[in-house]
Amino acid sequence: MALQQLNPPPDFMATIPLDHFLALPRPDTNIGRPDGTIDTTTLAAHDFDVDTRSGFMPPDPPMTRLPEQWEAWESALDEAIDNKLQLGDKADLSENDKQKAVRWQSDIRQIPIIPTTELKTSEILLRRAHLVLAWLMHFYVRTLPPSSDDIRIPPPITVPLLQVSSHLQLPPVLTYSDDVLYNWALRQPVPLTYESPTPALNNLRCLRLFTGTTDEEEFYLASARIELQGVRALSLMRATMDEAFVGDDIAIQRISTYLRHLAGVITDMKQTLLAVRDGCDPMTFYNEIRPWFRGADSDVGRRWVFEGLELDPELKEPTELSGPSAGQSSIIHALDIFLGVDRYSHASHVTGHSQTPASSSSQASSSSSSISQSSSQSTSTSPEKSLPPSQSTSTSFLTRMQTYMPRHHRAFLRHLSANPRPLRALVESSEDPSIKEAYNIAVSALKVFRDAHVQIVAVYIVGPSRKGGRPDQELKGTGGTNSMMFVKSVRDQTAGAILKTT
């Protein structure tokens, strides 16, 4: 069955009830709920900000600039990029580069603390504000010279970033959504049509780059393209769940077909992942790009201090400060949950951390909520109001990374995990060998995707790190894990999810 046949025929829309989720229009995304929560009382995909045209990516190119009221932030980010600010620990940093950074940092400290109240009426404004402020913070932190002193983030960044992050229920640090989901535009403004509703993979560009290099852009765009390829995966997942509710012999046959198609989509995603090697040089990535988006847990011995917390009594010291990671991709988590692989890949022992205490910058506060509980353990469809406990050796890295996803997408994953007729249980209970075979083909494709991820970590982190003389135990990813140990562990756990056949 061709993929385009998976959607219901046009006359189907005329027969479904008005309150069916397929009949509901996409809401006005400019206006958010006043308390910052989202409505998940229906099954509508739009409640989870998952679009049939673009998946977890927004269907329209993201906002490129905040309104005039917040121009000081945008101008400061422009200045950092235009002046080509360099990493503060760069070995051959010139005196001119040092002075440019000092002047820019001084200018940041002089920016007035701009109110964020009016941002809270718009999800789009909040997303852009988080992106700009997080990029400003990383520019500020990473242009500082090497030192054993604490890293002090000034109030003009601290106060609005923490306020915006609280409303979005995101950590106040650069995330995958800032670098990938909301950091793109079309190279050519080609209108999307019914026949071509998804942006072409080769028609994307990035809005912001730390280095201005094509290597950095290709690194981000590889993930963006995988997200867009995930649109087909989501369509197949939706069709499969519809058939699972029927559960007869014809439904089993159709599910088997959909799972084989899904394996093909995952294979395409794997090829896109490996294609990053064509446009992003490993040494350039490791030495010039990767340091910019490292989080606080990459700064061993240097604590991030957020100044100005006393200016707003509702602000709290952040506890989750890892950098962006591919582990924050909702489409990969969705595949895990849909296939029932999450009980393996998200198991509590798959942390990517050696068995040592977490650093002081990563300790959880007692007021934190429990969003980092595995989505397979939660049946709630209401998003949490506060951030979760931070990383520990007993918390799955992938589970913890859900904290860094947009809250709508976290709600989608919880909704998916609460499916009363999970696919894996259906396959295990079926006497039809064809569905077990198709299921194993799909899980095997996901395992091979993770084989490719192992290759990417070897090429972009392990190899360059060894050339720099750093020992294996220091090969941490931007999410704070031992990169190779983690990706191998998840890959092996995924392989363990393959069902035995007789």
UniProtKB/TrEMBL annotation:
Pfam families: IDO (PF01231). It comes from Cerrena zonata. Belongs to the indoleamine 2,3-dioxygenase family. Residues 349-396 are annotated as: Disordered. It comes from the Eukaryota. Heme b binds at residue 453. GO terms for biological process: 'de novo' NAD+ biosynthetic process from L-tryptophan; L-tryptophan catabolic process to kynurenine. InterPro entries: Indolamine_dOase, Trp/Indoleamine_2_3_dOase-like. SUPFAM superfamilies: Indolic compounds 2,3-dioxygenase-like (SSF140959). One of its GO terms (cellular component) is cytoplasm. Residues 354-383 have a biased composition (Low complexity). This is Indoleamine 2,3-dioxygenase. Gene3D superfamilies: 1.20.58.480. The keyword Metal-binding applies. Keywords: Heme, Iron, Metal-binding. GO terms for molecular function: heme binding; indoleamine 2,3-dioxygenase activity; metal ion binding.
